[in-house]
Amino acid sequence: MNTIILNGSPKGNSEKCNSQIFAEQFVKDMKNPCEIKCIAQNVPKELAQYVADFDAIILILPLYIHAMPGIVMKFIEELEPATSKGKSIGFIIQAGFIETAQHKYVGRYLENLAERLNYSYLGTVSKGEAAAIYMYPKMFKKVLKLLSELGVAYEKNHAFDDEVVKKLTNPYELSKFKLWLLRLVNKVGLGNIGWHKVLRENDVMDKRLDRPFL
Amino acid sequence: MKALILNGERSFEYSLSKFSKIIEDLLKGAGYQIKTIILHEKNIGNCIGCFGCWLKKPGICIIEDDAQEVAREVINSDIIIYLTPVTFGGYSSQLKKALDRNISLISPFFGTYHGEVHHRPRYKKYPSLIGIGVFSEYNKDQAELFTNLVERNAYNFHSPSHASQVFTAGESLQEIELKINSLLSKVGVNYE
Ligand SMILES: Cc1cc2nc3c(=O)[nH]c(=O)nc-3n(C[C@H](O)[C@H](O)[C@H](O)COP(=O)(O)O)c2cc1C
Question: What ipTM did this prediction achieve?
Fold first, then answer.
């Protein structure tokens, strides 16, 4: 059983790429770490041919406007259905917004895709609130550890471990209380401290609300 | 009133010009000024995920290519139409690539909408969204997914109203016209 890990982020193997961090964590504690390849750094057609020789694919990707990034769609368009049974594909999605219910659409899309490609579907693991992981990895130690656990269990069972998946997926939806809290946080501006910091560093704080196309 | 058609057809397969022609004629009849952009004829690179359009040049993508023109046209339209082949229930990569570059049109700052976290609007007014997906071979699950995606994207981009419809490549012109007419009326187009 050989598995290839694909990083679907347009950032590729840059150190600012959360999908790459996810991929590296996923294989970190495996006895025989899987190979990782970046879609961004390969020719879609060639990569599609390359992955056809593996028994399993795990595609790790950021959510882009509720779906996969354009480069992942381009790659997907190049994939050919498997000619033999027994191949499998699974997905790990990470995204900026907190609640993973927002990944519902893409999860169903990916399940449909697996079926069309004649691959068995290992599932889609979702992690929200992931955009800042590359900036503050220490704050996300728990998440990174869960990803390594997910990888170890995958190597053993060729499946995503339900317990670990559940922990990563949480919260699926925001409770009324959490929504209220978020509204408050946004109102007093706390939710945007991170953005403000970078805007100031870039010396464009006063331009942050610009409408250049009017 | 202005309308913009983003045609995401792929250069190697069936053309969607039949559909854009019908949309153009109907909208012209309702007094709209129409622009159609065939995306594969444009030079549009992939979003590189740098957030430069929020944090370096607020409102403008840092990659200088035709996607900037697309974004400018989108925000200055009253209606936009995503016209695309349905690929596994989603848009073509041509269209998706152009849409990824449109996050310059919203703000990095967060708000809560429809009981979810989303980005706040950057502009005061956004276009209504119509999604038109064309199948080479109809698939019910994928049709549902397509409808869902258009709805989700309408939330992402603060569209005041939205509607979507899938077609099969072989449908008659008359059928297509009827359905598109009903789509247009859903986003408030009338012929008076
Ligand atoms: C064009 C674009 C669109 C995005 N759309 C969404 C979205 O719809 N929902 C969400 O939660 N996060 C969205 N994000 C945030 C990314 O998913 C998040 O920052 C992710 O961690 C990036 O992963 P990467 O570093 O591997 O590229 C978007 C980011 C970009 C650049």
Answer: 0.94
